[in-house]
Structures are given as structure tokens and as C-alpha cells.
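Researcher: Quick one. two chains, 531 residues in total.
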Amino acid sequence: MAQHEILIAGFGGQGILSAGRILAYAGMLENKNVSWLPSYGPEMRGGTANCNVIISDEPIGSPILNSATVLIVMNSPSLEKFESYVTEGGMIITDKSLVTRSPLRKDVDVYEIPATQLASEMGNPTYACIILLGKFIAITGAVSKGSFEEALRKVLPEKYHKLIPEEMKALEVGMEYEKA
Amino acid sequence: MGEKLLMKGNEVIAEAAIRAGCRFYFGYPITPQTEVMHYMAKRMPEVGGTFVQAESEIAAINMVYGAASAGGRVMTTSSSPGISLMQEGISYAACAELPLVMVNIVRCGPGLGGILPAQCDYFQSVKGGGHGDYKMVVLAPCSVQELYELTVEAFNISDRYRIITMILGDGILGQMMEAVEFRDVENIQNVEKPWAVTGTGMKREHNVITSIYIDPEVLEAHNRKLQEKYRLIEENEVRVEEYNCENADVIVVAFGTVARIVKNVIKTAEKEGIKVGLIRPVTLWPFPVKTFEKYATVPKAFLTVEMNAGQMLEDVKLAVNGKNKVDFLGRMGGMVPTQKEILDKIKELIW
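Model:
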């Protein structure tokens, strides 16, 4: 039984909630059970945002993550807050352009990607989160590239569909980054 | 079978209402249920319905009273402090036997409180937050799909019995996204409403919708009629999920979001050789008393878990009726009970 418990955290405006939603949608398109829970509490007002995404072969119990198999972080405060959430053998993917220190955990796989820098080079820094998701998808196979593309089509309003090839390119940048 | 969509709980409530034939919505924005209003503001005009953002919750509930009196399928949604403001109108509508649907996506109180998930309005919903001897049917969904099913059902129940039906949820349920399938609503029961004030057309006597009965004998008779209706609902409309209860070491009682956390706990406990059952009341009123009678002596103890200081706990104790121990675990203020603390409590009960 595979269950991916994904915690994506960073600042508001980095596309964290949207990226999580696309990921969940992709899982649903593969007939997996999915849930997406945004942070909507007072911490949002301070500018941080996070979301809990679960993709599972089994029916999902609680949508609230007390721990995560994957942590994707896009700012330093979120690494401080959530590093301990990751289960042993899980993974942490950081945006090295924004997260100032490396994760301290030795019992998880760590991937540090200068995602915001790579996205800026592509001409749109908001693709950073998609780049990080690319790494996650490449390692775990939680959803396929095709499902992700289909999810983009479902989630994005029609007028943004012209951006989909760019978003997919960002996903591939992440998937290919420092591939062993 | 419809297509599966990934949608927010709050939006699903609104879409369900539209599909159930709701054509009147009155409300006032408040987190964490504002998305219901957003969605309604866009969707209602598309189906030729009426959407009004009222000047306050008090105005909204009285608009609802008016639309229901005229026989419309009508809904309002709010969150705890807003629902408190509506209590006078709720009591009036209960007395006037108006079918209407309300949604409370609960905030953590008391007072202005906070916007994080809580279940601290159980008493207010189930015991009557307003004045007088009245009841509302209270439905407690635990998933986005169930939000759809139960919102549709709420309209049916309201019309069938001329009663207020309330959906009681929390911020997690309202804010989360899950897959939802809008199965065809075959059971839209467009109940005839010969009592509605729709104009006589000079063909019949005037219908009167009122909540004032000055004559005590008349008012007592009206109260008896209401009570008879409530007994009928208790007989016919109980909904409950029983899960893993046979031979359970401990039966946990939880509703809404908390029941989902308990389902995770059940799996973990099983690995440790502990059999945990779950009774999840789907109707908080009418309360599933018979289920408790059935299992009263089965477990070593019952454990009620709620996001409040112990409200449903009282109904569980009444239903278990002294035949077993009933313990409680509660978190407040927007704190959500963790799987670990529930499991620890279960172990404490059996060892």
C-alpha cells in the first residue's frame, strides 16, 4: 500500500496551494484517493502558507498531517517548523535559493534545488514550486507526468492553458535536476 | 455516474444546494465558510435564483424566513458567532414549521474565538440555541462527498417534515478538497406546499405563517403537535455509521472530522492487537440511541472524542444509560486531537 503524505510550505504567493491542488488532482485522475487541506488559520495572515496533500491507494482517514513522508519547503521558517514532521526514510526537498540552511536530519533523503533561480532563468519565478514537485514525482512516481499535465488542464482556467507547456518544462527541469 | 471533481467542501455545499433545487440564498460572510457565499453569488443567477448578501446575519435569517414562508427551497450558511445572531429567527422558524436548510461551519469559541476547526456548537445545534421547545435535524458529514449527499438530503428532510435542518461542519471540512461525484439527484422531492403563502388567487382561504399563539391552550396544542413530529423524526431519520464495533475492546464515539482521525487510529491499534470500534453519529439529532443500546455492554469502555469540552459526551452517557464506562478526550481552541493522543487514551482505558 502506497500512501504519500506531502507537506508543502513556504510564503503566500509562491503558488504552494495551487501546486498542491494540481498534484492532488493528478492523483485523483489516476483513481487514487486524495485530499488537499490548506492552512487557513491565522498564520496565513503572517504571510506563510502550507498545504497537506495525501495521495493513497487506500481510503484516506484524517486529511490532517501530523507527520509527512515528503516535505517540500520554500522558506527558512517552514524548514524550522516542519523538519521534524518528516517520517524516517522520508524526504525533504528544499528551494536552495530561499532556504538558507540545509536540513539537519540524517535519517531522510535530502534534495536541495535552487528552484527559484532555475525558474527565474526560465522567465517566471512562480514555477519554482512546480520544479520542486518535479523532483518529488521523479523519485516517487506518486503520479505520472501525463496525469500532471492533464491536471493542469483541469485546474487552470482556459485563458492560462497557453502556459501549460512552460509549466511542464518546469516540471521536467525538476525531474532531471542532478539525476543520479 | 458523474465525473469526479476535486472541490472544496464549502463549494460542494453550495453546488449540492443548487442541485437539490435551492433557489434562494441569504447570508453574510464569515470565515471559514465564506466560499459558500462566493460560489452562490456566481451560481445563483445562472439558475435564475436569488442571492442576497444581507446587511447582517439577523437580516439574513429573516429573509430566509420570508422565502421559506412563500414555499421556496432556501438556505443560509454562517459560522458560530453568525449562527448565534440568527437564534431568534431560528426559533421563530421552528415554531412556524418552516422548512429551511442552515449550515454552520463552526469556529472555535466562545466569543469571537478563532477560525480553526472546532465542534463547540454541538449543544447550540442539538439542544436548541434559541428559546423554546424546538428541535432541528442536525447532520454531521465527515467528507466532501458526504457534504454533497447530506446537503441534498437536508432539503428533503426539511420539506418532508417542515423542519429546519442544519449541517454542522468544521473548518477542515469546509476548507479541504477531496474528490466528489455529483451523482444524479433522483430524490429531489418537490413536496407540495399547500400551506405556503403564495397568494390565494381568490380561490382559497388565506394561509397564515406565524409564531405567535397568545391563547395558552392553542399554544400547548401547537407544542404537542411539534413534539409528535419530533418523535416521528426520531423514529425515522436516524443515521449512523457503525464501524468495527463487534467484539471491540473500546468503542470510540466521534462525529465529523474527528471520526476520520479515529479511523486512522483503528488501523494503528489493530497492528498492536487492540480492537477499536467507531460509532459515528451522522444525525446528531435525532441521536442514534438504539446503536448504543445494541453495543452498550460490548466494549470495556466507550471513549467520546470531540473538539470541545465534552458536549456530545452527555448524549452518549444518556444513551449508554449507566451500562458501561464512558470516558472523554477533548481538545479546544482550534486544536485537533492527534492519532497518538487518542491511541494513548484507548490504551489507558484497557490496561
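Chain A has a mean pLDDT of 93.
Researcher: Thanks, that's what I needed.
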